[in-house]
Give the backbone structure.
Amino acid sequence: MSKLSEKFERGEFAISSEVGPPKGTNIEPVLEEAEKLKERVDAFNVTDQQSSVMRLGSLVTCYLLKQRGLEPILQVTCRDRNRIALQSDLLSAAVLGIENVLCLTGDHTTLGDHPQAKPVFDLDSVQLLKVAKRLMEGYDMMGNELDGKPKFFLGAVVSPGYEPLELQLIKMEKKIEAGAQFFQTQAVYDVSVFERFMERASKFGVPIMLGIVLLKSPAMARYMNENVAGVTVPEELIKELASVSKEDRPKKSIEIAGRLIRQMKHMCHGVHIMPLGWDKYVPAVLDEAEL
Amino acid sequence: MILVEPKPKDEILAFLQDERAIFIVACGGCPVGAEVGGEQKVLEMKELLESNGKKITGSALIEFLCNKALVGIHIGRHINELNEADCMLVLSCGVGVQAVANTVDKVAYPAFNTLPMRGVAGVWQSTERCNQCGDCLLYLTGGLCPITLCAKSLLNGPCGGTNNGKCEVDKELDCGWYLIYERLKRIGRLDLLKKYVQPKDFQKYIPSPQLRSSSLWALERRAK
């Protein structure tokens, strides 16, 4: 059984981090970085061609993590595969013992490093969840019987800072009805935003993991404010980060992330940290968050 | 010319299940040419709905529904009948349904599916775009087409990339799902957003052998 789902079932606070497969075959450093977090982190998201940039696959990276005793969360997007390939990959994941699957729409192809590619989007995230659930029941989406049923713990994403929030909540509810068993959120830096979201989302009764991206610099925070949908880093935080020298930034970043998690952890069921290369600081963030 | 075919009666009656009073809008252009539109067809639809307990508050047969100005002028003459109606049933291609929905703040149900002609466009359309998917769902989306308005043609709501009502592909482009949300909110039908929409049947994008062997197809596709 998925260790992540067991954790939620026991009512314990779950911690996940993120692994980005390399562009190329040099996987070892990525696996080593993840292994160092083994004692502190319950599960690792493995991104699926993140930001539409072509990389090593999510499925094989999940498998390699699993071989080292780490718990992977397979991210699956609808951008690159049609319904035949998606169902097949889900079956492959199950055979490899990968149970946690995070179903996403995926960024548009034009945002990545192969902008000329044909965008697929044969299914959307809600439909993908429904299809995965159907596979668990022993049928493909056309109703054909499977020889051997897969077992998944299905996740989805939601964006607490999205305007209008009502539209986001409608989609969240649809995802739950389709089969989502847990949620990870887009990065949140404003406690009141998360509070407002959780007031309405907690009634759905599914575990929600707060998303945090480690802020590496004021420029990065400003970039996210301008370009990442639903993410707002308050000006005070940017100023706080800018108030220290470049050398002290990691320390400040750890302090900010840890503080935010500490302030919001009582409202939710887990935290999902996206270190974007700063994996080595994750334990310090968790210390600061008192986790 | 755009080719349309009537949706199965069962589908029409199913999606109109909770509607009581209906105003019928019909296009007098392409559907008449395809012999599925015109006065007689409006009468038949009226009879079908009435025999299923619906009240028809009125009807309008308008020359070309793909022209919003024309729709606006003609539909203005039916304000009282439209006010009485819960919704509209539109006998036209997807462009016509969108033009009507854009003019009147009520749900516009498509009575037809628009058939794939492999890229042929309407004659008078303005901003409305129909992708001829052969399985019209405009009644769920406030008469705004997510196939043509969303860069990913998503069917169950916006993706996470939409920002302040704009599309992640280009900040100048509106997010189609944001427009759909705003429209449905305006007409008090956000409940429609909660309905799960099945994956598209892409077989319907292939013109059927019957369509390809029709004289209309031959006339439309004839090479000079």
